[in-house]
Specification:
mainly alpha, two-stranded antiparallel sheet, 17 helices, 2 strands, 71% helix
Length: 359
């Protein structure tokens, strides 16, 4: 496996540890400062930013599975909802603090993800995706029918994480969670296990022939992705303060899928970058054209078609083509840092798995 190390600059080593580039850390600093800068300090805009950061975090965890092992989990937001309901019910019934409830939600989602993985990930492609979707529909049905536990369509009221009327604290929390999820998934993809994920995603038969157990690695990937979704579900519950089965709807997963694919499948960071302008634009459409429900889904579809035709690799492909492979040393340092390599695992590294298998 090819190994590269950052330069001796302490800043480069720190950025490499965080899996960021100078441009990436600059973007995060800008996002952290936005709520302090007019007009973004208005509460409704802060809520838009929270929604964007939430979808960005979900898209990273979703892309960890869809982009690396080639499984599109259409029940993803149902699993996220399970994490939210777990945290909310524990807080309501036994008074568990929401901070621990969020971790309990992550654990519940991981367990379910493991079970779903065992059942579905022996299948391939659309069959695994459809079976995961059916599990999601079943979860949504249970959340609707178990009135004694979830209150169904009436909604389950939940204590918020912060008592303040301001949403700034929630924004910084979800921004931190987004960074943590990115670092976890990026570090995982940098390991030999991450190379195995990509090898399986590229050619599962060749990976199996080389000695890799595809089912094992797919289940590990799927379980981790679901765990992160459950953690985010806990945040969702304790931010909005109410849960209804609609949070588990397939349309919610489609929104995450659209952001991840427009951002660039397999990039992890692409969806997070696209989410902020994209979700804020969709919120503007919803508020301005409320008499046209579902228009945002039409826009998602049109953008996905355009991306698939002109840039199948999404925004990440566009960025790599025009910025990452630059001859300018300054621009090269900003977008690549001191590592002198792209963030994504190269095809050559994944191919090396075939000749040097992980057992």
């Amino acid at each position: 496996m090819e190994k590269t190390t950052p330069s001796g600059n302490p800043l480069d080593r720190l950025l490499d540890l965080l899996c960021l580039t100078p441009l990436g850390i600059s973007a995060l600093i800008l996002l952290a400062l936005l709520p302090l800068i007019p007009p973004f300090n208005q509460e409704y805009l802060i809520r838009w930013l929270i929604s964007a950061a939430f979808i960005a975090a979900l898209s990273i965890a979703f892309d960890f599975t869809a982009g690396y092992i080639g499984i599109v989990n259409f029940g993803y937001c149902a699993i996220m909802g399970l994490g939210g309901y777990t945290s909310a019910i524990l807080a309501d019934r036994i008074g568990l603090t929401p901070w621990l409830g969020m971790l309990a939600g992550a654990l519940a989602a991981a367990v379910l993800g493991f079970v779903i993985g065992i059942v579905t990930l022996r299948l391939r492609g659309i069959f695994a995706a459809c079976l995961a979707w059916f599990f999601g529909l079943a979860l949504m049905g249970l959340a609707t029918k178990l009135m004694w536990l979830t209150r169904g369509p009436l909604g389950l009221r939940v204590d918020r994480l912060f008592a303040s009327s301001s949403n700034v604290s929630f924004y910084y929390l979800i921004l931190t969670m987004m960074v943590i999820i990115y670092v976890i998934t990026r570090w995982t993809t940098r390991t030999k296990m991450g190379l195995a994920f990509k090898a399986i995603g590229q050619n599962m038969e060749a990976a199996r022939t080389s000695g890799i157990n595809p089912v094992f690695y797919r289940i590990v990937n799927f379980t981790l992705s679901c765990m992160l979704a459950g953690w985010l579900g806990g945040f969702y519950a304790h931010f909005y303060g109410i849960l209804t089965p609609d949070v588990m709807a397939t349309a919610k997963t489609v929104e995450v899928l659209a952001v991840a694919y427009i951002g660039g499948r397999g990039s992890l960071w692409g969806g997070a970058v696209i989410a902020f302008p994209f979700i804020c634009a969709m919120e503007l459409v919803r508020s301005s054209l409320s008499n046209l429900p579902g228009l945002n889904l039409v826009i998602y579809g049109l953008l996905l078609m355009a991306v698939m035709i002109y840039y199948p690799g999404g925004f990440a492909q566009f960025f790599d083509t025009y910025f990452r492979r630059t001859r300018s040393r300054l621009l090269g340092y900003l977008v690549n840092g001191g590592r002198n390599r792209p963030d994504a695992i190269s095809d050559r590294q994944a191919a090396a798995i075939i000749s040097n298998p992980i057992r």
